[in-house]
Design brief:
five-stranded mixed β-sheet; 29% strand; disordered N terminus
């Protein structure tokens, strides 16, 4: 047989393979030992074509948890290999080309509940693994297909966005970026499946041992109805299959190209099976508006921190805009029963923060990820809120310019069709203008690339709506609200730094500034954010607090008297025209 193959090779002119022409390969094995749940081990089998290669741990663009800190026992076979650390997240290996095995272990600190849903965990009944929290990637070979073998406890099942094979414990990815964006939820879980427009979707729920029973049929139905509305909007999906990865007892969520990690609490689902649906809709919508309609600054994969992104006001703000709208279209009850009520509370929150008239949407976007708290000085702002308000105003502009024939939906569809054009303000501006046939340059110059007081009355009037704003003392749980517009963060040097969220707060008026290093409160040292938070929560109206801080100019001491503060309330009068009636009907 070997002779026959050699003859065929000669006849076909196919060069005989030899050591110098070996194709590179990357194969991973991730192991979990049920007798030691303090971490997991990874083995990488490489076939190298150079005597020097580098492995790196990727930095996620949103949440760089720097799991490289927890890498231990990094070894290479053959043992003669020379290993060196050339960067905080990069290992260099010098060894003869050919087959190489790299092994290492990750043993992160266990996190108490509630745990961030995107961070890995291990327990006796399952865990979340993979992605940048587990796998290194081969620099220079980012586009190479990879294989992943999961060596897990025998009773554990697996759910992931990676491509399955005939072996239920072996998966593939077309490249390193896909591998990093496909976490693995394994263990004892429940799952349900549905198909939307021929595309399979899987819902996976990992429960805590004491999980509260809930109406799973309603839970699954709500997700399916929401998914159907996204398909109705865009017409197609950028994936071949999709997996929802829910973890009981966790919080938050993180989008991926064909999966999402989400935290839920079964006790809340027992009260309302749709309790997590708004968050689910938000993260799912990111599959289009962030993963596919991608910001120009986004890198496919990198071990370095993601640079600032200027269009997050759209990627996040329009996504949260649709997380509300999709549920209304799906017929799911939401907390603010009407679109007017939702817009009222949205504008009330917007007007309560002077940061939005001081900082452009692009400026707020650029400090949303990977920026130290206090990046805006004595202001804090949400790119989600700012973007949702601007998205609503753009929707009104489009509806008015097209006599109701089009809406922001059409601009989203156009951006999806143009997804090869990376997202930035000019890309968004062109899509809106091509949708409405109107000029929105002044809007983008005033509020997106520049900053100014939003003329919301002008845009509300396009739909026959009129807003009235009143100010009154803030109330929380039926009592006057204390001015606690201050928080802290720990920069890692054993201290706690202040963040003033509004310079008009009692803290700002007392001369305190963001990034001041807190020395003491009432003479007692404070060195952690939880300690500061506990001290703040104990304060009552009229209390006097002595604060000492350190700043580059020296020590500063002041006295703060806790008082209340005013909040705005927006009420929208509905005398809608035909456009307003259509908008109220949630088209």
């Amino acid at each position: 047989m070997k002779t026959l193959i050699a003859v065929l090779i000669a006849l076909l002119g196919v060069p005989k393979p030899h050591a110098g022409t070996l194709k590179p390969a990357v194969n991973y094995t991730l192991r979990v030992d049920s007798s030691d749940l303090s971490g997991w081990s990874v083995e990488i089998r490489l076939r190298t074509v150079s005597d020097t290669f580098r492995l790196a741990m990727a930095a996620h663009p949103e949440y760089d948890d720097r799991y490289v800190r927890y890498v231990t026992s990094f070894t290479v076979e053959p043992n003669s290999a020379i290993v060196s650390k050339v960067d905080s997240a990069v290992w260099q290996v010098i060894t003869p080309r050919g087959d190489v095995r790299v092994r290492y272990r990750l043993a992160p600190r266990a996190e108490p509940l509630p745990r961030a849903a995107w961070r890995p965990f291990l327990s006796a009944t399952g865990g979340l693994l993979g992605g940048p929290h587990a796998f290194m990637y081969l620099l220079g070979a980012e586009r190479m297909p990879v294989t992943v073998t999961l060596d897990l406890p025998r009773s554990w099942r697996v759910a992931t966005g990676l491509t399955s094979t005939r072996d239920p414990r072996v998966f593939t990815a077309p490249n390193a970026a896909t591998l990093m964006e496909a976490p693995v939820l394994a263990g004892h879980f429940r799952d349900w499946r549905f198909t939307e427009r021929g595309i399979p979707h899987r819902i996976v729920y990992w429960p805590l041992p004491d999980a509260t029973p809930f109406d799973t049929a309603a839970f699954v139905s709500g997700i399916h109805r929401m998914v159907a509305q996204v398909f109705a909007l865009f017409g197609s999906a950028p994936y071949r299959d999709y997996t929802f990865l829910f973890q009981d007892g966790a919080y938050g969520g993180l989008e991926h190209p064909n999966s999402v990690t989400l935290g839920i609490r079964s006790v809340n689902l027992a009260r309302d099976p749709h309790e997590s649906l708004r968050e689910t809709a938000h993260e799912f919508f990111h599959t289009w508006n962030l993963m596919t309609i991608k910001p120009v600054e986004y890198r496919d994969i990198d071990y370095r921190t993601q640079p600032p992104v200027s269009s997050l006001w759209f990627s996040e703000g329009l996504t949260i805009f649709y997380s509300d709208l999709l549920l209304r279209r799906a017929g799911v009850a939401v907390s603010d029963s009407t679109r007017v009520a939702h817009l009222e509370q949205l504008l009330s929150r917007y007007l309560s923060n002077p940061a939005y008239e001081r900082f452009s949407a692009e400026a707020v976007s650029q400090v949303a990820y990977n920026a130290e708290p206090g990046a805006l000085g004595d202001y804090t702002a949400s790119t989600h809120l700012q973007g949702e308000v601007l998205g609503a105003m753009l929707d009104f502009i489009v509806r008015d310019a097209t006599q109701g024939r089009r809406s922001i939906d059409d601009a989203m569809r156009l951006l999806y069709a143009r997804a090869d054009q990376r997202l930035e303000s000019r890309t968004i501006e062109r899509a809106v203008e091509d949708t409405c046939g109107c000029d929105v340059t002044s809007f983008f110059e005033s509020y997106v690339r520049g900053a100014g007081v939003l003329d919301y009355s002008r845009y509300l009037a396009l739909l026959g709506l009129r807003a009235t704003v009143s100010w009154a003392p803030g109330v929380y749980n039926g009592e006057p609200e204390r001015d606690l517009r201050i928080f802290g963060f720990e920069p890692g040097d054993g201290s706690v730094r202040l963040v003033i969220s509004n310079p008009a707060s009692v803290w700002g008026r007392a001369g305190l500034h963001s990034r001041d290093r807190l020395v003491s409160m009432d003479g007692s040292p404070v060195s952690t954010w939880p300690e500061l938070r506990a001290r703040l929560q104990r304060l009552r109206m009229g209390d006097t607090v002595r604060i000492a801080v350190e700043r580059p100019s020296g020590r500063y001491a002041t006295t703060v008297i806790v008082a209340g503060f005013e909040r705005p309330s927006v009420r929208i009068e509905r005398v809608p025209n035909a456009l307003g009636q259509a908008w109220l009907g949630t088209p």
